[in-house]
Design goal:
It is built from 13 helices and seven strands. The protein has 302 residues and is an alpha/beta fold. The protein has three domains: 143 residues, Trna Endonuclease, Chain: A, domain 1 (3-Layer(aba) Sandwich); 75 residues, no CATH class; 76 residues. β3, α3 and β4 form a beta-alpha-beta unit. The longest helix has 39 residues. The chain is elongated and about 85 Å long. The protein starts with a helix and ends with a helix.
């Protein structure tokens, strides 16, 4: 399973190189040719100055027009001048070394980043750029939010791609259940793979938790094992929380003992503040301060 959103997008295109063709046709209304053959290659573009430069995903494909390279570049933030130079380096390196044309696809979950990728990809003086890169850029501004189960089922891999591209969209929950329904049209192992894949690709945060919560309510065959994993994960989290709560109770008891030994009497409000605290570092700091404090204000550092 992909561990982070960046890697998830790479894996999608490595698993299904034809996704490039389908995406370009669908989102750019461009007749990109069908891929007949494909090979993933590891391209070391390191120069003589020993600066390492590796292309994350480079696919060498064969279409009816001949050979071509497809470069996939997920981009989280606006591209720096160095990033644009790197893209130019990758493209020119491949064309010079292999004599084969290369296309660049930039994927970003941020519309502002997409605008920057489209507008700033130039080299040379600002007064007169000598080179302009014209990548395909996919972002929430041209990727649909697929909320219809039937539409999601038409191309499940594209629907997964769409969801991950839209992962920062506050309305993404509307697309989650339709995608889960679409996964049911696949065989169990494949559906389970993509369900796990989406969980990893959404990254850490509330969107991932929403996906997991919806998954727990599903009755599809492919989620049965995932539900067991969620149950085990929940038990582990519960045990960890229980240990943390037990640790906090011990620290609170120790703090109250120090206060009593020092003759410091907390008010009801201060006592509630202590008993409700679960922050280990804060409880430790209060206990340390209580050893020498002459008032509760000094204990709390107020």
């Amino acid at each position: 399973m992909a561990k982070i959103p960046h890697e998830a997008l790479h894996h999608l295109f490595r698993d299904d190189p034809h996704l490039f063709t389908r995406s370009v046709r669908r989102l750019f209304d461009e007749e990109f040719p069908d891929i007949k053959e494909v090979a993933e290659i590891v391209v070391d573009t390191t120069s003589i100055d020993a600066v390492e430069r590796y292309i994350d995903t480079a696919l060498r494909v064969v279409t009816e027009h001949g050979e071509e390279f497809l470069l996939i570049e997920p981009q989280g933030e606006s591209p720096s001048p160095q990033k644009i130079r790197s893209w130019a380096w990758y493209l020119s390196f491949l064309e010079n070394k292999y004599g084969v044309p290369a296309s660049l696809l930039v994927i970003t979950p941020k519309t502002a980043t997409a605008r920057e990728c489209r507008a700033r990809a130039t080299l040379g003086p600002a007064r007169r750029p000598v080179m302009r890169l014209d990548p395909h850029v996919i972002s929430p501004d041209n990727m649909p939010l697929i909320t219809d189960p039937a539409q999601a089922a038409e191309d499940v891999v594209f629907s997964v791609f769409a969801l991950l591209t839209q992962r920062l969209n506050p309305d993404i929950q509307q697309a989650m259940a339709p995608l889960m329904s679409a996964l049911e049209t696949l065989d169990t192992d494949t559906a389970r793979y993509y369900a796990e894949f989406v969980e990893g690709g959404l990254g850490e945060g509330c969107q991932r938790e929403i996906w997991k919560k919806i998954m727990k309510t599903m009755t599809y065959g492919y989620v049965s094992e995932l539900k067991q994993e969620f149950r085990e994960e929940g038990l582990a989290e519960g045990r960890a929380e229980g240990r943390a709560e037990g640790r906090a109770e011990g620290e609170i008891t120790a703090l109250l003992a120090v206060l009593a030994a020092r003759g410091l009497e907390p008010t009801d409000a201060q006592l509630e503040r202590i008993r409700s605290c679960t922050d280990h570092e804060r409880l430790l700091a209060w206990t340390t301060q209580a050893v020498t404090a002459t008032s509760m204000a000094e204990v709390f550092g107020d």
